[in-house]
Design the sequence.
């Protein structure tokens, strides 16, 4: 290679910012390279640093609140020091105390992010199972392929998923509906366990799942995953490519494709007939971004076809009683890849446009519009060759618009304000041959919020408030085919108050008390009919009010023993007013399939409290021990009884043996993991069809190596889940009435990563 | 400039949302309940001639709504009967005869008759599917001495017809999914 082509992008521009009057250093000045997506904010002594700058000529701009921007022309053939002196028009900046690092962070609450290692270890699993890496997160399962995430005992419409800034809207009202998201397409998966309703709006009673994208780390980079599983004889293939498209790194892009195919899974003693999966997903975005402004266009398509265990298809309470008495499911056939009825076929599409701009006087405005289309078809066992006609055929269309202003240059108070609007239309595609269980409806909602932040010494405070209005117009068809409209209006207010106290660099205490709300969903308001898989009749209640919660969560993070031990303890209390739940009615209802128990939606006051505990101990460099414990208790204050379907106590212990580099092999590790789930002793009597199953313990083994080759890397992971092929049923798996959970699974995961920086080549 | 851009974005979104919500209301397509069974008739016709006795269960608006109407009957002691069971969907006009579907898919259906001990009644299958196994739509019955008790009539979809004793009408090992399950009170006098 000739010398000319060896252009490096590793220069650093650094310097200091001063006030002209008193020559004092200025903190929180924004310094950025015009036309480039690069910038920095000056620290408490006025210093700033912009790294990884390529050779070239630029204009460097310095902005600060109350000052005119200053521009300087620079030429970068080497590392540069550029100082700025700014003139202030006002004296308002004397008492600034905000931590720059936290300025653009979202909340004073603890945000738990899944590490890349844990991501790789769980690659190929669905979102709910990946999230289980965070303590306090469990799943509500329908078999092994449908998993709804549960945060501190709450799930479905009581938690919120922000999928790349868009609130995911995909028929979460039913327990057998999992979020329609491909984890491979997400760069960063985190959970806010506190109530974050002020910023994100309704439904965030239990917490928020945040799925985010990150900018590429290289000019062009990509990953290919190939995964094979013994149980289900299935595989996953996923590939992504991302990078910058232009010289100035203003345009970046990402494309991701995933294909998943699996046949029937196996319980230790029998085949779980009709539990195959076929999934095809696409994710793409294109982004234009400079320090001053940016535009993102994003489209994703999620497409899945999931078989539902054949033996769970029952007609009445006699069938259910037979299933409960039998040790094996009544329908067991040989392994097959075929996916027959009952099954779900779902397509979810998201189209998003987002624009941000930094204002001259400081601050950042963001505008976002997103459209979502969720098409859900559910197929049942039917007579007369109708099994290929969907029994449920729903189209849910959601449009959201959000506008936020965030103050990035601080005054005494830092604020973020926003408004949002939502329109939703649910439509039953005709031709199913069934009276729809969810009526057609239009829903409108609008909201506004404000978040304020204040920092003084070691304390940081945050306070916020939000107002939301929701209007629903549902079109109901009666049994006699008469149409009528039912309208509902809900006004909701949420507030939050949080603080962070950093005792020293090793001890941080965060505490947040926040309220959240959730208007009842249409199913809770208007359902009326047999819930086939639950062998019961469920009746809606048009008088339901919004649920209103108040959650107090405190997190103590301690790093000690020469930083070898990290401990995090998070106790919480969540008090929910007007908690909506199904309660049994006195009288059963006679139908042509016999008598069914009747459950009606009612409201009560409930309290869920518990704690999560995380420990990481690096015993020596080669051995690390991690421990996660979570427990909670839910109580219905009206009936003075336990809440149903609360996750039992669980422990997750791992010991990892790791070594550095041996010859050309890196990150060699072996993890022995033991997960233990206790029996749930706290449950209400006489509501569930059977008592909770016994507790269980599962051994898992993970081992992996990395083979780096210049800018490429091949990672191999071999793992065995449920090593001893333990037979178990899980309290939060709806299939526990019918069949055991899946047994042992061997899987091999291959990840190929490459990155390429043409200007950084050293040949 | 920026303000204009913002204004434009806001207006564009507003317009888009209006367009979407302002669309013409979709017609209310009423889905007819195609597979609903509203009516089960079990007709006992004396072999030697005489008035047939009909047991029936009618829930014309399906699950919920109005309560079902059940008609029970009285059989004559020491009499043989031909028994025909029919299934109808009377929520649509004209009523749909589901018996035909059951017969056409005879391999995937079977009607079971469970007789409470004490009731002196035996019911035997008198029809077969393509695999020479009973369906249970056409049967014979023998009423014994005077007695009372219950008769449970069950229509199973996809039962294991090859399982032990299923072919002689024992539901215990049948499995499958229940499409209808009716309990009748029977008097033999």
Sequence:
């Amino acid at each position: 290679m000739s010398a000319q082509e060896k252009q490096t992008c590793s220069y650093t521009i650094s310097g200091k910012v001063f006030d002209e009057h008193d020559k004092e250093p200025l903190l929180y000045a924004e310094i950025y390279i015009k036309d480039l997506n690069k910038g920095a904010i000056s620290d408490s002594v006025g210093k700033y640093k912009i790294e990884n700058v390529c050779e070239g000529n630029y204009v460097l701009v310095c902005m600060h609140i109350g000052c005119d921007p200053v521009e300087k022309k620079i030429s970068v053939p080497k590392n540069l020091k550029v100082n700025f002196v700014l003139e202030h028009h006002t004296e308002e900046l004397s008492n600034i105390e905000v931590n720059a690092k936290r300025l653009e962070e979202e909340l004073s609450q603890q945000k738990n992010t899944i590490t890349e290692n844990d991501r790789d270890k769980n690659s190929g699993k669905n979102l709910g199972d990946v999230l289980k890496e965070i303590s306090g997160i469990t799943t509500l399962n329908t078999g092994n392929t449908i998993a709804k995430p549960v945060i501190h005992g709450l799930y479905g419409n009581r938690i919120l998923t922000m999928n790349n800034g868009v609130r995911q809207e995909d028929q979460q009202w039913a327990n057998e509906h999992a979020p329609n998201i491909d984890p491979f397409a997400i760069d960063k998966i985190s959970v806010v366990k506190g109530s974050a309703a002020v910023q994100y709006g309704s439904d965030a009673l239990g917490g928020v799942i945040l799925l985010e994208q990150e900018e590429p780390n290289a000019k062009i980079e990509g990953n290919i995953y190939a995964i094979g599983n013994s149980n289900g004889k299935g595989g996953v293939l996923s590939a992504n490519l991302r990078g910058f498209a232009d010289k100035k790194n203003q345009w970046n892009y990402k494309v991701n494709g995933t294909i998943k195919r699996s046949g029937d899974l196996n319980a230790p003693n029998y085949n779980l007939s009709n539990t195959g999966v076929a999934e095809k997903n696409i994710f793409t975005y294109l982004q234009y971004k400079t320090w001053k402004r940016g535009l993102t266009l994003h489209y994703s398509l999620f497409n899945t076809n999931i078989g539902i265990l054949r033996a769970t298809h029952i007609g009445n309470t006699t069938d259910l009683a037979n299933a409960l008495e039998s040790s094996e499911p009544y329908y067991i056939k040989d392994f097959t890849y075929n996916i027959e009825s009952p099954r779900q076929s779902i397509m979810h599409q998201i189209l998003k446009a987002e624009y941000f701009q930094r204002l001259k006087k400081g601050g950042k405005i963001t505008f976002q519009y997103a459209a979502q289309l969720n098409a859900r078809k559910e197929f049942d066992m039917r007579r007369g060759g109708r099994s290929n006609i969907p029994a449920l055929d729903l189209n849910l269309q959601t449009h959201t618009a959000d506008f936020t202003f965030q103050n990035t240059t601080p005054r005494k108070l830092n604020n973020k304000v926003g408004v949002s609007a939502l329109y939703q239309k649910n439509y039953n595609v005709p031709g199913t041959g069934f009276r729809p269980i969810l009526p057609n409806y239009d829903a409108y909602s609008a909201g506004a919020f404000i978040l304020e932040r204040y920092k003084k010494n070691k304390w940081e405070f945050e306070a916020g408030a939000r107002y939301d209005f929701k209007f629903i117009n549902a079109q109901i068809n009666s049994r006699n085919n008469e149409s009528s409209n039912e309208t509902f209006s809900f006004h909701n207010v949420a507030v939050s108050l949080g603080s962070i106290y950093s005792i020293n660099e090793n001890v941080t205490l965060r505490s947040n008390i926040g309220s959240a709300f959730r208007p009842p969903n249409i199913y809770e308001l208007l359902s009326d009919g047999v819930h086939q898989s639950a062998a019961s009749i469920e009746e809606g209640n048009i008088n339901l009010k919004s649920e209103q919660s108040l959650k107090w969560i405190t997190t103590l993070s301690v790093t000690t023993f020469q930083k070898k031990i990290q401990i995090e303890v998070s106790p919480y209390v969540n008090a929910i007013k007007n908690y909506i739940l199904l309660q049994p009615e006195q009288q059963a209802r006679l139908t042509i399939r016999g008598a069914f128990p009747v459950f009606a939606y009612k409201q009560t006051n409930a309290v869920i409290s518990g704690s999560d505990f995380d420990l990481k101990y690096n015993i020596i460099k080669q051995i690390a021990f991690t421990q996660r414990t979570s427990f909670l208790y839910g109580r219905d204050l009206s009936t003075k009884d336990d809440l149903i379907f609360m996750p039992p106590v669980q422990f997750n212990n791992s010991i990892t043996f790791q070594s550095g580099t041996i010859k050309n092999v890196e990150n060699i590790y072996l993890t022995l993991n033991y997960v233990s789930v206790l029996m749930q002793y706290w449950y209400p009597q006489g509501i569930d069809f059977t008592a909770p199953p016994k507790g269980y313990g599962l051994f898992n083994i993970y081992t992996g190596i990395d083979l780096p080759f210049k800018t490429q890397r091949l990672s191999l992971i071999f793992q065995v889940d449920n090593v001893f092929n333990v037979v178990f049923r899980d309290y939060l798996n709806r299939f526990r009435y019918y069949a055991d959970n899946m047994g042992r699974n061997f899987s091999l995961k291959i990840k190929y990563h490459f990155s390429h920086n043409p200007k950084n080549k050293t040949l | 400039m920026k303000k204009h851009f913002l204004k434009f974005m806001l207006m564009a979104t507003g317009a888009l949302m209006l367009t979407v919500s302002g669309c013409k209301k979709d017609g209310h397509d009423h889905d007819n309940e195609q597979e609903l069974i509203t009516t089960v008739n079990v007709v006992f016709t004396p072999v030697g001639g005489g008035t047939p006795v009909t047991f029936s269960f009618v829930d014309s608006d399906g699950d919920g709504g109005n309560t079902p109407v059940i008609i029970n009957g009285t059989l004559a002691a020491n009499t043989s009967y031909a028994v025909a069971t029919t299934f109808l969907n009377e929520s649509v006009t004209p009523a749909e005869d589901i018996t035909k579907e059951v017969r056409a898919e005879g391999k995937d259906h079977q009607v079971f008759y469970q007789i409470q001990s004490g009731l002196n009644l035996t019911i035997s299958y008198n029809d077969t599917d393509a695999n020479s196994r009973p369906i249970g739509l056409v049967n014979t019955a023998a009423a014994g001495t005077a007695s009372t008790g219950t008769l449970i009539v069950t229509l199973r979809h996809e039962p294991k017809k090859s399982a032990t004793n299923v072919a002689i009408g024992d539901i215990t090992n049948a499995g499958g999914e229940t499409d209808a399950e009716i309990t009748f009170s029977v008097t033999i006098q």
User: Anything to note?
Assistant: Chain A has two domains: 3-88, 111-760. Helices of chain A lie at 100-103, 116-121, 127-131, 197-200, 317-325, 522-526.
